[in-house]
Design goal:
mainly alpha, 77% helix, 171 residues, 0% strand
């Protein structure tokens, strides 16, 4: 009887390790998704037409959310995704005003302008991705996401995103 219980305990521990490993695998996959879309957003930041780049970046971020939602098996709707991205980023992508427009218009400055726009696009995408990874990892969905509660974390991740973009330039 004791060996049967010991075997059951070992099996339970093995199951727990497998679940933990699959959770780690999911986070690694999610990080890979974010990195791929960060690259796409940074590339879109080089689109020479002000405002057109913002539309492309918004679509890239929306597709990233869709990919993350699929990974975490969270129901995704395009409309809600757009709304949450706009709320999280301060409405820049949705309204076309503010810092997003300024960064888009600074492209007219040769060399420096497009590079700055690409860096901001990549860092913003990184931050959006990290916020949603954290939210989905905690069991959240799009319906219970509160952009106001994660503004500080978003700002933190935006700074890390700038470093991630800089690392891409090096490598």
């Amino acid at each position: 009887m004791a060996t049967k219980e010991a075997t059951e305990v070992k099996e339970a521990e093995a199951d727990e390790k497998e679940v933990a490993a699959s959770g780690e695998d999911k986070v690694l996959k999610a990080q890979g998704i974010v990195k791929n879309y960060l690259i796409g957003s940074a590339a879109a930041g080089f689109i020479p037409l002000p405002i057109a780049d913002m539309a492309a970046i918004g679509l890239i971020q929306l597709k990233m959310l869709h990919s993350l939602a699929n990974l975490y098996e969270v129901k995704f709707t395009k409309e809600l995704g757009k709304s949450l991205i706009a709320s999280l980023t301060g409405g820049l992508a949705a309204t076309g005003v503010g810092r997003g427009t300024l960064v888009s218009l600074v492209k007219v400055v040769p060399i420096i302008g497009p590079a700055a726009a690409a860096a901001v696009a990549g860092a913003t995408t990184y931050a959006v991705g990290q916020v949603f990874i954290q939210h989905f990892e905690s069991g959240g969905t799009f319906l219970d996401f509160d952009p106001e509660k994660v503004k500080g974390y978003f700002a933190e991740q935006f700074e890390k995103g700038k470093l991630a973009v800089a690392d891409l330039k090096k490598g």
